[in-house]
From TrEMBL:
Name of a matching Pfam family: ABC-3
Record's keyword terms, sorted: Membrane, Transmembrane, Transmembrane helix, Transport
Gene Ontology CC entries for this record: ATP-binding cassette (ABC) transporter complex
Entry similarity comment: Belongs to the ABC-3 integral membrane protein family.
PANTHER family given in the database record: ABC-TRANSPORTER METAL-BINDING PROTEIN, METAL TRANSPORT SYSTEM MEMBRANE PROTEIN CT_417-RELATED
BP term (GO), one: transmembrane transport
Protein name as annotated: Zinc ABC transporter permease
Membrane topology, record value: Multi-pass membrane protein
The keyword Transmembrane is assigned to this record: yes
Natural source organism: Pseudomonas cremoricolorata
Length: 301
């Protein structure tokens, strides 16, 4: 795969040198980030639509905060502080599955339980990060929290590609089952769908995508890019397939523009913040369209 990445970079850099593409394409780290954006855009658009339908808005946020604890654990056990994926994936999967298991065995409302786990993950993550802060570069922690195109390398790209393939192999065949289990659990059960199984699989997929996107978007903002494109698409669409397709386009557009704009105009903002701001502007535009267009006037949200 590294040879493939090198080939793409050489072609894009040649186009930038000839003036066909903007000047930021001359930099290797910008092309790396854009390749990642092309991978995560479809993932965030599809999963974000499902997250909105299933009303799991704060679930990805709690997983993102749990990743901070995973980073700290990775540093403590000697894993590379630039890409402690084993500890992040391991801890976040354990955290997410424990949260889902507890949801199914308590009378607490989902938002209350997620709030409890979110608070716990913040407290544990902050405590451990303060403990290991003397051992790592503070810029590394900034990239985990808010995202940074400077931190993206071949390892991050390969991880994203592997997660995308895993989501495609697991999620696509079960997409209709997951959707039906969310909208009509009784009908799903009558059709022989194991609701508990598809729920756990969906939790695993969201966790994998959340952790894989941390280098680009950051732990603090990954939830926003799961929700904002899907919400913007919902403003101006009437059918689920159209909403998913538009959410994919908005998420990909936000990632690409959010990466290129700060580089092109030398704006000193984190990558994750720029990406989310672009998505927020798209959401604002779709909100205005919905409020002023006769087609949507009077339609339910």
């Amino acid at each position: 795969m590294n040879a493939f990445y090198d080939f793409i970079r050489e072609q894009l850099q040649a186009l930038a040198a000839s003036g066909v593409l903007p000047q930021p394409f001359e930099y290797t780290f910008v092309i790396n980030a854009l390749l990642c954006a092309v991978l995560i855009g479809p993932l965030l658009g599809v999963l974000g639509s499902m997250v909105m339908i299933k009303r799991m808005a704060f679930f990805s946020q709690s997983v993102g905060n749990a990743a901070m604890t995973g980073v700290a654990i990775g540093v403590l056990v000697g894993e590379s502080y630039t890409s402690p994926y084993l500890s992040m994936f391991g801890f976040c999967l354990l955290f997410a599955l424990t949260l889902k298991y507890t949801q199914q065995r308590t009378q607490l409302a989902n938002d209350t339980l997620i709030g409890v786990f979110l608070s716990i993950s913040l407290a544990v993550g902050a405590s451990l990060l303060l403990f290991v802060s003397a051992k790592i570069n503070t810029h590394v922690m900034e990239s985990v929290l808010f995202g940074s195109i400077l931190a993206v390398d071949h390892t991050d790209m390969n991880v994203l590609l592997a997660v995308m393939l895993a989501c495609a192999l697991i999620g696509l065949p079960l997409y209709n089952s997951m959707l039906l289990a969310s909208l009509n659990p009784s009908l799903a059960h009558a059709r022989g769908i194991s609701i508990r199984t598809v729920e756990y699989l969906f939790v695993v997929l969201v966790t994998l995508v959340t952790v894989a996107c941390l280098k680009i978007i950051g732990a603090v903002l990954v939830e926003a890019l799961l929700l904002i494109p899907a919400s913007a698409a919902r403003n101006v669409t009437r059918s689920l397939p159209a909403m998913v397709a538009l959410a994919v386009l908005i998420a990909t557009f936000s990632c690409v523009v959010g990466i290129l704009l700060p580089m092109q105009f030398h704006i000193p903002v984190p990558t994750g913040g720029a990406i989310v701001l672009v998505a927020a502007l798209v959401f604002l535009a779709t909100t205005v369209i919905r409020a002023t267009s006769p087609r949507f006037r009077g339609a339910s949200a």
